[in-house]
Every structure is written in structure tokens, then in C-alpha cells.
Amino acid sequence: MTSTAPPTPATLPLGDDALILSHRLGEWAGHAPVLEEEVALANIALDLLGQARALYTGLADVLGSEDEIAFLREERAFRNCQLVEQPNGDFAHTIVRQLFFSTYQQPLYARLSPVLPLAAKAVRETAYHRDHAEQWTLRLGDGTEESHGRTQRAVDTLWRYTGELFQPIEGLEVDWQELAEEWSAGVRDVFDRAGLTVPEGPREGAWSAGAGRQGLHTEPFGRLLAEMQHLHRSHPGATW
Amino acid sequence: MTPVTSPPHGHAAAAGANGAPGADGLDPEAVSAFQAAFDTAVAADERIEPRDWMPDAYRSTLVRQIAQHAHSEIIGMQPEANWIARAPSLRRKAILMAKVQDEAGHGLYLYGAAETLGTSREELLDKLHAGRQKYSSIFNYPTLTWADVGAIGWLVDGAAITNQVPLCRCSYGPYARAMVRICKEESFHQRQGYELLLALTRGTEAQRAMAQDAVDRWWWPSLMMFGPPDDESAHSAQSMAWKIKRHSNDELRQRFVDICVPQAEALGLTLPDPDLRWNEERGHWDFGAIDWREFREVLKGNGPCNEQRLEQRRRAHENGAWVREAAAAHAAKQSARASQDGASRTARSEP
Ligand SMILES: [Fe+2]
Ligand SMILES: [Fe+2]
Predict the structure, then answer these.
(1) Nearest residue on chain B to A48, judged by CA atoms?
(2) In this structure, what is the dihedral angle of CA atoms B316, B319, B325, B330, given to the nearest 10 degrees?
(3) CA A195 from chain center: how many Å?
(4) Number of domains comprising chain A
(5) Which domain of life is it from (chain A) (predicted)?
(6) Nearest chain B CA: its distance from A34 CA (Å)
(7) What's the CATH code of the domain at A185?
(8) Which pLDDT tens digit goes with each residue over A211-238?
(9) Mind giving me the DSSP string for B96-140?
């Protein structure tokens, strides 16, 4: 490596995960299948946004204000995993994305909470997100033939984005191997109860350049950022 | 229709009947006794509760009004949700998301209140989707810039509060109680909208222009939110007598104008009405003529977004059908499994 760029602060990937997933969940507003889920998905989105803001604020000395971090970085500077940037798809797709991510984020936060600039309630929030995703995975996997089919398809599609979650993030003292095993056990348990099958495909892309944690994203991510950043960038220096 | 169960509380003696039969089966004497008890309760500002006897027309008026209100909450999520993805700061993004979420919550409270009158959410949603029940016409206008989010909070939530605060004293208990919770949150929304506009008017020239443009577009539709003038309002007189409504459309509209004029001044924004002037004699602000032709056209379905709003609602509902079916199927399987378990446990434990 010849790059002289300063190292990525360890908590930046976590903040980016939270912001981008929050943004995606915000896209459900006005489109949810039942009114109760309008409330629940917004709740999760708000929790994640709060976490992102806390993590960004902790980086103010290095990277600037929370809004500079969110709105003024280019795509390649974002360190979120590719899983969270994946489009919402149908409700099953969103729920499986939630299951995969919350089963990762909850134990990660639980391990890191003493050293992260996050309120203690962040761990409780992620436990609630995980419960919400598990309950819905059970309903959808077990419910009807259609819901089962949609959920299994979502599992198969999103599976390839789950390996990246356990790439070590430099600067975070975590036993990534142990975290990965815990994740697999948790997901398998839910799959068993929901009648879902663990896919056989690979859990990461074959591209040696890497993935989200290296600033390499999928095509939909550029459009997400274009929408998210457009207004802020149209008025340089303005206060909102 | 839910069956009649008892006369308004505290008036059982007057009616002299407990566990009365359904409304249709009541003899005329009993009906008039129930009616008298109902009238007394309303006159005494007592609350009518779900199990109390009430006239059919009172019930249907309430269902119509609560349904329209509930529909307005959930359709009203759309114009603002339109800006969640583009909110220009993380703080504003959080405020906006929370606001849209509140509106969903308001929808839940209100559909719940309608359920106490024997009308299910499903039934009301079907009517909304079929175009057989209305929602507030204000949501048939588009949100074209970020400042529209502020204008909606300040003016639309502001007008809603002016309309709704008196409903906290509405004669029907569940509706009145829902309104207490809702009004508390609406007043947050109103302040947040005002504060959003204030940030714009104190900002750059472009931000100030954005704020003025939004207020220019939202002012008149906000005044129309109070409904047609009193002499043309079809349901007003009876609703006032029943204490479902407490003030006339024109009274509330005037109250709203009087509140907004000084606030606009504080914001440094101009309300788009050249006839706006203080009337010393009346002690109120005079304002110009409202374009009721536009009001009627939007009500008829010809507003800029009528089709779009209803279409998105229908699509969300249709796309969600398989999810609701799955949840119901899972719940049914669960309870079947539970009773099977119970049965086999009982069988095993038998000697
Ligand atoms: Fe509301
Ligand atoms: Fe509101």
C-alpha cells in the first residue's frame, strides 16, 4: 500500500452501518404492510440514526461535524458493509436484512459498549431490533407458501453479503471468529424454527479488492448517497 | 352496529332497562327514555362511552369524522415522507422521521377509537381505498422543496391543532381521549415546523426564498382546512348540538389567522394576502376571499396529488396483503400447535 491517507477511525464503519441502514428503513415510511410496522420500522430507523450520530460525534476531532461526515464524503470514503446498503426489496427482503444485521450488531455492541461513545441504551435497542427481525422471520417463514418462498429467496440473495461482517475492523478489540460463530448459531436457530434453509452459496464476493469496509460498494449505494446528500451539498455552508 | 348495552352512565334509572335488546328491537318508550338520558348526559358535558346507548346518527357521524381524521393521518405521512431521504442534516432527518412516525401512531389511536364504535380498521381502509371515504384535502398538495416540510409543520399542523384542541372536549370519550394525546404531539410538530422555517429565514438568500415560496403555496390551502364557510357547512349544526364540534368553521379559521399573522411577522415572512389587515373594531385580522372553487375541485379529486396519494396507499396495502396473510396463518398454526400440544399432554397424563 502506498496510500498516505490517515487510517480509518475504528468506529467509523459502525457509524456508517447505522446511518445507511437507518436511511434504507426510512424509505419504508408510507409504504409498510401494516400501520404497526410503520411505527416499528421508524422506531428502528430512529434508533440507528441516533447511534450513527453518537458515533460520528465521537469522531468530530478527526473528521468534522456529524453532517460533514454524513453529507460531504464521497462514496469510496464510506466504510459501511454492503449488506446495509442493499435496497429494501419486499418486506421479506427487509426483514432478512434486519435479521442478518441485528444478529451481528447486537452482540458486537454488547462486547464494545464500554469503549464505544454510545449510550447504554444502544445495546438494548439492538436487542429489540433483533427480536423484531426474529419474530417476523418466524411469521414469514412459517406463514404461507408465498411468504415462505419470498423469505427463502431473500435469504439466498442476501447471504453473499454476510461474510463481510466478520472481517476484522482495525482498532476494535473483538474476537471476530467467536462473533462469527455466535452469529451462525443464532441465524441457524431462527432458520430452524422458521423452516428456512441455510444457503450453500459463498458468503462473500470473489472480488479481491474487497467490499464495503474497504470503501467498495454496490451500484445502488451511489444512488442512495446522491439522494441523501443532494440538498445539503446544493447549499454549501448553509445551516439547517 | 354494536348492540345497545346500557344507557349513558349514571342514567340507568331513567331508562329503567339493563341489557336492552338491539336498537331495532327496542320499544318506542325505551328508546325515548334512552334518548332522554343521552341528551341529559350531553347537555351536562358528560362523556358518552362505547357501551352507552347513543342515537344511530350520532354513531355514524362519529364514525365518519373519526375515519376521515384517521385517513388524514396516514395519507398525511406521504408528503412529508417525501423528504426523509433528502433531509439536509442528521438532526432534521431524525425530527422528520419521528414526526412521520407520530402520524402513523395518530392513525392507530384513531382507528382504535373508531373500533369502539363497532367499525374495524380493515373496513375503513377498504372504504378509503375505494374512494368512498375522504381524508383532508390539504394532503393533495405536493411538497416541492425542503421548506414545504417547515410550512406543513407550522401551518398544517397548526391548523390541525386549532381544529382539534376543542375535540379534546368532544362528547364521545374515546375520541376525546385520543385527541388529548394527539394534540400534544401536534403542538410539537407545529413548533418544529416553525423552527425549521426560522432557520431558513435566518439563513442564506436561497433558503429565505425557499421559505417564502413554501408559505406562499401553503397559506391558502391551510385556511381551507377549516372547511366551507358556516352558511354552507352541511353537518355543522347537528355536530355542535351533539358537542362533537364546539366552534364553527369560520370561528376556527379566524382564530388560526389571528395566531399566524404575528408568527409570520416574527419569521420575517409575508403571508400572500394583500387584504390582510387588523380590524380594530372586531379585534381580529381581516383576510381576503378564499378561492372556494379550488377547494371544491381538490375535494372532487382534481387536486395536484389526489390520484398519487390514493394510489400509493392502495399499493402499500396490496403489497402488504401477503405479509398480513402470513402473520394470520402463522398465528393460526401456532394456536393449532398449542392446542395439539395441550391435547397430547392431557392424553399422556391420563391413567
Ligand atoms: Fe397527526
Ligand atoms: Fe402532525
Answers:
(1) B94
(2) -100
(3) 24
(4) 1
(5) Bacteria
(6) 7
(7) 1.20.1260.10
(8) 999 999 999 999 999 999 999 999 999 9
(9) HHHHHHHHHHHHHHHHHHHHTTT--HHHHHHHHHTT-S---GGGG
Query: What are the cell numbers at B8?
Result: 349513558
B4 pLDDT band (50/70/90 cuts)?
very low
Position A97 in a domain = yes
| Mean pLDDT to the nearest integer, A174-179 | 96
CA of A148 to the centre of ligand 2 (A): 37
Which of B238, B269, B247, B248 is closest to B55 using CA atoms? B238
Write down the H helix ranges in B116-204.
121-129, 146-151, 158-164, 173-201
* Letter string b/e over residues A115-132, b meaning 16 or more CB atoms within 10 A of that residue's CB: ebebeeebbebbbbbbeb
Best probe of the A interface among B75, B89, B109, B198, by most A CBs < 10 A, is B89
- Cα–Cα nearest to B42, from B174, B171, B168: B171
Task: Establish if A236 belongs to a structural domain.
Answer: no
Size of interface A-B (CB pairs under 8 A): 146
For B130, the grid coordinates are 375505494
CB contact under 8 A, B88 and A240: yes
Asked if residue A143 belongs to a domain, the reply is yes
All cell numbers assigned to B55? 342515537
Confidence of residue B21 (pLDDT cuts 50, 70, 90): very low
At B172, is the secondary structure helix, strand, or coil? Answer: strand
**pLDDT on residue B17:** 40
**Nearest-CA distance B103 → chain A (Å):** 9
- CA B192 to centroid of ligand 2, rounded, Å: 10
Closest in B104, B111, B207 to A238, CB measured: B207
Centroid of ligand 1 to alpha carbon of A193 (angstroms) = 39
Q: What is the DSSP letter of A183?
A: H
pLDDT tens-digit map of B287-308 = 999 999 999 999 999 999 999 9
B223-232 residue pLDDT tens = 999 999 988 8
Say if A2 falls within a structural domain: no
Domain region containing A62:
12-229
- pLDDT of A26 strictly over 50: yes
Tell me the residues surrounding ligand 1 (ion) with CB < 5 Å. B 73, 103, 106
